[in-house]
Design a protein that fits this description.
Blueprint lengths: L5 E6 L4 E7 L4 E5 L10 H4 L7 E5 L16 H14 L5 E6 L1 H12 L4 E7 L9 H4 L1 H6 L5 H15 L3 H15 L2 H8 L3 H7 L12 E6 L4 H13 L3 E6 L6 H4 L1 H12 L1
Parallel strand pairs: 3-4, 3-5, 5-6, 6-7, 7-8
Antiparallel strand pairs: 1-2, 2-4
Length: 268
């Protein structure tokens, strides 16, 4: 039976949170990725609303949620999520999360294990997979102030077009635009002190995770994404790792029906 999508807002102690909601049944809460907002999950929940009660919030500082002028951290996002779930009287939930949202979800599950029935994580951040500084170095250069790297890209673009580098430069410039629109993600991932970022990684705590975890990554995603999933699979005790083919870096929008099938099978 068709269930209409509802949009709502609630005022919490840290700011107002916006979310989409649809369906009935077991409670599924979806957290978006680093460079996205709640709309990332809309195509996926179309295939789930007949079976589950889906909640899809914008994290604090993202999308249509409030963007207070505060110092952001993963723990702050976790506490905001906890208050949001308490306000909606959601006692036990499944968390389905991508990228940065996966880091928040795993941290929440470790802090509130009795509130979590299971996790579905897609290329989740939050572990020391590879060299963290190196992985985000280009992104850091793209949004550096003054924008020297951006000026360099603009300068070499006409030459790059002559030698087959047009798509690569355009891809970097497009990525820069997405970064600029994601100020909180930038702060959480690489614009804090290294010590603060390291302190919030979950590597050492994942062996304590009691909830079952389904890990998904696209077969055509980056090696870094595969490494993130493998790190979670190696460290958390109750995990299942699946590679989705075809699939790249944004599975909820690329193959929503397939992602929904994995979620249905995991929850049931």
């Amino acid at each position: 039976m068709y269930s209409p999508l509802r949009n709502s807002r609630v005022k919490l102690s840290l700011g107002q949170i916006f979310w989409h909601e649809v369906g009935q049944g077991p409670n599924l809460v979806f957290l978006h990725g680093s460079w996205h907002d709640s709309s990332q999950w809309l195509r996926t929940i179309e295939h789930l609303s007949s079976y589950f009660h889906c909640f899809v919030p914008d994290l604090l500082g993202f999308g249509e949620s409030e963007y207070p002028n505060i110092h952001y951290s993963i723990d702050l996002e976790v506490e905001c999520l906890a208050e949001y779930l308490n306000t909606l009287k959601l006692q036990q939930v499944y968390l389905i999360a991508h990228s940065l949202g996966g880091w928040v979800a795993a941290s929440y599950a470790l802090k509130y294990p009795d509130r979590i029935k299971g996790l579905v994580l897609l290329a989740p951040e939050g572990v020391q997979a590879g060299n963290l500084q190196q992985r985000w170095q280009i992104a850091s250069w793209l949004v550096a102030r003054p924008p020297v790297f951006f000026w360099l890209l603009q300068a070499i673009y006409p030459i790059a077009k002559l030698f087959g580098g047009k798509k690569k430069i355009e891809g970097l410039l497009h990525f820069r635009n997405r970064l600029i629109e994601s100020a909180v993600a930038i702060q959480l991932l690489f614009r804090r002190t290294r010590a603060e970022i390291i302190a919030e990684l979950v590597d050492e705590r994942l062996p304590l995770l009691t909830a079952p975890v389904l890990l998904l990554h696209g077969s055509q995603d980056t090696p870094a994404a595969a490494s993130l999933c493998q790190s979670y699979a190696d460290l958390a005790p109750h995990t299942e790792l699946q590679s989705i083919d075809p699939g790249s870096s944004n599975l909820p929008e690329e193959v929503p029906e397939l992602v929904a099938k994995y979620i249905r099978d995991f929850v049931k």
